[in-house]
Design goal:
Chains A, B: This is ADP-ribose pyrophosphatase YjhB, NUDIX family. The structure is a homodimer of 261-residue chains. Helices cover 35% and strands 26% of the residues of chain A. By secondary structure, chain A is α+β, with helices and mostly antiparallel strands. At the A-B interface, strand 1, helix 2, strand 4 and helix 5 of A face strand 1, helix 2, strand 4 and helix 5 of B. Chain A binds a DNA duplex (27 and 27 nucleotides) through helix 7.
DNA sequence: ACAAAAGTGTTGGAAGTACACCCATGA
DNA sequence: TCATGGGTGTACTTCCAACACTTTTGT
């Protein structure tokens, strides 16, 4: 929504296109400079930052909606995207006055106001998805109502709107727990990468350092990555081997994963 | 809903009380006779069985709704209940004609019909919860539109309505993967139980046998259960020790659980 | 005394962890 | 030649899996 006209159309006609009472919130993890960051946005006249999100079209699959929303926000397609929980308990989600009030502050920028009975004033549940994207390839779409965006370090997330902090916590927990069952990182690293690169990624995600030798043993033994017969030149140092993801194994890991016995 | 009048009221006025487009489906695992079973229901004039489910009230938390629905169906409160996934992709969920048609077959019993624009004809997403209940304590509430119910073995689930088979598969996967991080079974076993009892439960859930000695070592080492200084008399056999759940540890396990490192 | 269930300990293998030295490269 | 990052192996510990005999108890 890039213009006031589009916003007005959304507010008045959106209920025909979208399901009410339900939104998707995306925790978009980006990796850059050996840090794990999250993409936050701030709407017009809002004190708190929010997660990027959107609504589900009436005849659209849920997963498809999540992909669409993510690509609308980041211009990226075909990303690693994973549903992790549906949020519908927080008292802030049930407080109609606060919801309506916040919306109206935002929509004031387009000179529109909504009343208590408007579809956007209603309580919503939110399905949480997390995504892993390459920070560099993201170009955040400028939207009329979004006045600011920022990548913040996962360890320094400010106080967010509604229950979005809780959503991020759960996303991180889920991401961490799935790290060794999925080829997480497939979207964050070039096709071929060095051991150090993927180790730095895992360290950023899990927030702790690993031993080089043990890390390699584990990743290769699990079948997540494969060593290639190729090296990369990297300045005044020994040339490291390249690796790639073993995607055949990935699906097997995923099926077995989660089930401990 | 025990009478045609209540059904009619629900159909005509339910949209005021409940959120549209959203339901909760419960995979109710019951344990009996060393078998893990699932509670299924069959609505009037429906060929396929379904999972018990319900709708979320407009000002009700999602978790609260799940508990309410479960206790409406089983008369049990305070159960182990866990959200596991939200389903919104299956083509059967988007096929309005099929949905409306199925509803109308069911509602014919109350001499009501709904049209294409009715709130119950619309596409719904479904939040999946699973519960663990003691088969014996459940008294399934007779409902006017539900003509039959059955406990079926998890290994012999018939073909169900919509995507309910998929929901059960995911529920089982989740239950199995969480088995050692949560005090699953707290609601299925008496406060004090023998090792054999809990082992039989775990075997039923995971579908494979364990070695007595190794099982005991593992459960005690993980801190899930504690051996008591007490035995039970069980007929012409040696008296087994009693155990109980170590609920203090349970919360710690739960926090650490899922996160592998 | 016997049938049925429960209690108990050891061993070998696999996986995980800790740890340090040498090598390659470009400036 | 030096500074920097990369490559590599071993010993120790812990966890898991396999495995069988003895004890208790009521009839």
């Amino acid at each position: 929504m890039n213009s006031p006209e589009e916003v007005v159309d959304f507010i008045y006609n959106g209920h025909q296109r979208f399901l009410p009472h339900l939104s998707i919130d995306c925790v978009i993890f980006g990796y850059h400079d050996q840090q794990l960051k999250i993409l936050l946005i701030r709407y017009h006249d809002q004190e708190h930052w929010s997660l990027p999100g959107g609504y589900v079209e009436r005849q659209e699959g849920l997963t498809a909606a999540a992909h669409r929303i993510l690509s609308e926000k980041t211009q990226l397609t075909n990303l690693y995207l994973q549903q992790f929980y549906t949020f519908g308990d927080s008292p802030t989600r049930l407080n109609r006055i606060e919801i309506q009030d916040n919306h109206n502050k935002v929509y004031a920028k387009a000179n529109v106001a909504i009343d208590e009975e408007h579809w956007l004033s209603k309580r919503t549940l939110s399905v949480g998805y997390y995504a892993l994207v390459d920070y560099h390839e993201v170009s955040v779409t400028p939207e009329f109502l979004v006045v600011d965006y920022a990548w913040v370090d996962v360890n320094a997330v400010p106080s967010l709107q509604y229950d979005h902090n809780e959503i991020i916590d759960k996303a991180l927990l889920t991401l961490r727990s799935q790290l060794y069952q999925q080829s997480v990182g497939y979207n964050l690293l070039p096709e071929k990468f060095t051991l150090s690169e993927i180790q730095a990624l895992y360290e950023a995600i899990l927030g702790k350092p690993f031993d080089r030798r043990n890390f390699r043993k584990k990743m290769v033994a699990l079948g997540v990555i494969r060593q290639l017969d190729e090296r990369r030149k990297i300045g005044p140092h020994r040339s490291p081997y390249l690796y790639d993801f073993n995607l055949e194994n990935a699906s097997k890991l995923q099926e077995a994963g989660g089930v401990i016995f």
